[in-house]
Hints:
The structure holds 2 protein chains of 2 kinds.
Chain A: E1 3-7, H1 11-18, E2 23-30, E3 33-38, E4 64-71, E5 83-84, E6 92-97, H2 99-112, H3 120-128, E7 129-134, E8 160-164, E9 168-173, H4 176-185, H5 196-204, H6 220-224, H7 229-234, H8 241-245, E10 252-259, E11 262-269, H9 290-309, H10 320-324, H11 331-339
Parallel strand pairs in A: 2-6, 6-7, 7-8
Antiparallel strand pairs in A: 1-9, 2-3, 4-5, 4-11, 8-9, 10-11
Chain B: H1 2-17, E1 23-29, E2 36-41, E3 50-51, E4 71-76, H2 77-88, E5 97-102, H3 110-115, E6 121-127, E7 130-135, E8 139-143, H4 150-153, E9 165-166, H5 181-187, H6 191-202, H7 210-213, H8 239-252, H9 262-266, H10 274-288
Parallel strand pairs in B: 1-4, 4-5, 5-9
Antiparallel strand pairs in B: 1-2, 1-3, 6-7, 7-8
Helix pairs in contact in B: 8-10
The structure holds iron/sulfur cluster (SF4) (5 copies).
Amino acid sequence: xxxxxxxxxxxxxxxxxxxxxYRLFGPAxxxxxxxxxxxxxxxxxxFNFLNTRLSAKSMIFPQSEAMFKYSLDESEVDxxxxxxxxxxxxxxxVFGIRPCDATAFLLVKRNFDTPExxxxxxxxxxxxxxxxxxxxxxxxxxxxxxxxxxxxxxxxGLDVLLVDAGDHFLAKVLTEKGKELARAxxxxxxxxxxxxxxxxxxxxxxxxxxxxxxxxxxxxxELYQAPFWEExxxxxxxxxxxxxxxxxxxxxxxxxxxxxxxxxxxxxxDSCMYPLFTLHGTGHNPRETKVHRVRQRFMxxxxxxxxxxxxxxxxxxxxxCVRLCPVNIDIRKVCELMNSYEG
Amino acid sequence: MLRYIDRIREISxxxxxxxxxxxxxxxxxxxxxxxxxxxxxxxxxxxxxxxWDSNCGINLTSYLTxxxxxxxxxxxxxDSRNIVTHIIENKIKREQIFIxxxxxxxxxxxHKIASMFETEILSVAEEDGKVIVKxxxxxxxxxxxxxxxxxxxxxxxxxxxxxxxxxADLLEEQKDADRxxxxxxxxxxxxxxxxxxxxxxxxxxxxCYACRNACPLCYCPTCFVDESRPQWVGKSxxxxxxxxxxxxxxxxxxxxxxxxxxxxxxxxxGINMRLLTKKLEKxxxxxxxxxxxxxxxxxxxxxxxxxxxxxEFIK
Lengths: 343, 315
Ligand code: SF4
Ligand code: SF4
Ligand code: SF4
Ligand code: SF4
Ligand code: SF4
């Protein structure tokens, strides 16, 4: 597909034009980091980051989301009935998504949109969006995307890929949705450039990697019982930061929030690092200790997922869990332990 | 710092060789700048992993909770005070642990240092009270005193309050530190201003509970935020629920908090929730002359009664 040149001088203008047709979302500075949010009127996405603190996952799958509401007030017609909470699924454009996070959309889609099960909230939300990526000219030292199924200029999951080229952006239009957005923004000036060399330069700057080639052939039960887990898990405080910040973690919990005789049914992100995640009604907890829980996180990402989908690991190499874990539990190290474990 | 490391390794090796303990808990070098990882040594050969520098801000006491074996533990001033609290609260037995006391020269504030640089920090080294930070483009030398964790800058108990052997000579304690300037600032606010201040302070919170989990005081088998029968607090990102979590947790730490800073250090979004516990620490100090974890012989003020306790608040 074609590459368009968007002068930074015209950037605000183009975004302004989009406002009629789309709700705009993008990264904004929030204290010491950048988070995705809906952009206020006139607000431009802030691209002055290496990567956003939390991933773009919340743009489709928010940390807390109301699903149903109910009332026990018998004077209301549909009392005692769960009613769906109305939500705005009008077209939205999300700017500034790093390629790893966009790849993660498709990875998460494997879970939320299967031939058997369709998660209506995730799917509607996903379909409402046009996803405008921002290529990484300067990846972090903790990014290992190129060995985790994507890369700094990866296009999967995106409708447009923006490349920052100094005084202008190069916008590579990737889908019909992207084309429409470019048209609505008035971005038409085709650029006669090849972004290939920029891509290569960026890829050559990735200094971190994982080996995943042996994971599939490893015997699940052997890995499960491997002796390294106690040590690998020792430092972990089970805070869940790794899973909340991860673009590919998809687990959630369902909660009713009552006030007097009405309430809402919510879903909130959950994490296999929390004891509550597997606590049974009987009080029994099959993942009783943190060693069990840490093992679950890595086994899910690096073994069960690999076996179930045959599509690589459940990790896009964004490096967030490595950067944010308060006690430096590093998935690259654990992956190496697993990949090289001979039993 | 190298001397500290050698001593820590030496003492640990001896403990493990002689079978005094089954494991020693300390720090090993992490894979990121300013990050060390809590780790254990079970055999004399493992002690070579141990390090000591200004990135050992996680409080290791949490790793002792309810353990049954004999354990050696590396403890700076605040860790040792939390160990005392742990012993008083029956989370570990005194005779079960061998404390390798580390007179502490303060930990550096990883959030603050990261926010001082526009680009990624690639390495951080220390030398004679200086911190040398390298990014892709530049190298900058900072005074360690300027980038200490906020709690370390005003710490008056750098020496361990309890130990079996020391990794270095005791230090002179800081005398003129103004410990509560930040709390006084908040105290001086009107209730409205204070509400807004906390609103803003806690707004980036993602409810991951790293602060709670990094705190050695937070060892309840089920935290009140995780209870579901009854459910005390909502689990969404509702700001009122988030504040409820923070305020109540702080109260649970009253009279027990040592201002070790582990909670603040652990937070992935850099929130200083420690201001809440610090206010209570100040109140305990001013009302009861109490500082947690200095002695094994006295119960904390909120689970005991003394005739001279202030009582003007009882109407
Ligand atoms: S972020 Fe680190 S400490 Fe927290 S749950 Fe994940 S691995 Fe454990
Ligand atoms: S596991 Fe870690 S590195 Fe991989 S996608 Fe998740 S946060 Fe990123
Ligand atoms: S790693 Fe844990 S939280 Fe993440 S998707 Fe797997 S089970 Fe869920
Ligand atoms: S509340 Fe924070 S400062 Fe106080 S003991 Fe716990 S971790 Fe340390
Ligand atoms: S560690 Fe930080 S983000 Fe996590 S719950 Fe505590 S204050 Fe909130």
